[in-house]
Structure formats: structure tokens, C-alpha cells
Amino acid sequence: QGNMAFAGKYEFEGDENYDEFVTKIGLPSDKIEMGRNCKIVTEVVQNGNDFTWTQHFPGGRTTTNTFTIGKEADMETMGGRKFKATVKMEDGKIVAEFPNYRHTAEVSGGKLVEISTSSGVVYKRTSKKIA
Fold first, then answer.
1. What are the extents of the domains in the chain?
2. Please, are residues 89 and 100 in contact by the beta-carbon 8 Å criterion?
């Protein structure tokens, strides 16, 4: 059924349009520098429709979002802002509406592909599975 497809650990491999996107969503320049080509490790624990999505940043900082598909959850953005969102599943992709962008995640060819869109700017981050 493929709904366990997300579980695993993924290491940042590459991205597109990073600077344009983070400038568009108003990330401060120190955060922009910190995140550029950052070897983020994304760890996904999945139990049916329940997810724990953790991003490990170099230097020991982590961000964890815990959510259930179709239910409102407390979330945190790239920039550390907290908000509420209902995460959906559409065509095998996880879809979350953040305050100023739309984020999708899917596993394709053994890679975690995340796409964020804000006012026509599309940021794509690809991570390879390492565990």
C-alpha cells in the first residue's frame, strides 16, 4: 500500500532556488547562511497516519514536527516560527500549508524530495536515504 514509504533517515543531497525562496519567506540572513548547503539529516518515524518528522542540523540543533494526517497539529517552520496546520496526503505526497508557503514531501526513487512553494518561487530539496 506504500503508506510506510516515508520511514527512514535521509541526508541532504542538493537543492534548487534556496536563496530566492528563503529571502521570499523572510528568513533573516544569519539563518539563511546557516541553512545553505546544510547537511541536514531528516529522520521520519511513521506509524500508519502518525508521523514524527525530525530534522537534525549540524551542531546539534533539531526541529521535530509530530502530526497525524488529516488532523490539526502544532508545527514549526524552517525559521523557527510556530503555527497550526493540518497535514494532508495527496497522491502519496505529504502536503502541509505553512503560513507563507506550501510544502510537499514524497519518496521517489529512494530519495526524499521536498518542494516548498511561495508566491511562485519553488524550492526543491533532495535527500538520499542513509538508513
1. 8-129
2. no
pLDDT at site 4: 60
Question: Which top CATH class is 8-129?
Answer: mainly beta
Q: Please say whether the beta carbons of 112 and 130 come within 8 A.
A: no
Length of the chain in residues, anyone? Answer: 131
Amino acid at 53: W
Q: What is the mean pLDDT of the chain?
A: 90
Give the C-alpha separation, 127 to 41, whole Å.
8
* pLDDT of 51 over the 90 cut: yes
Q: Which of 8, 12, 4 is nearest to 113 (CA)?
A: 12
Beta carbons of 40 and 12 less than 8 angstroms apart: yes
| H, E, C per residue of the chain | CCCCCCCEEEEEEEEECHHHHHHHCCCCHHHHHHHCCCCCEEEEEEECCEEEEEEECCCCCEEEEEEECCCEEEEECCCCCEEEEECEEECCEEEEECCCCEEEEEEECCEEEEEEEECCEEEEEEEEECC
Which percentage of the chain shows pLDDT scores above 70?
Answer: 95
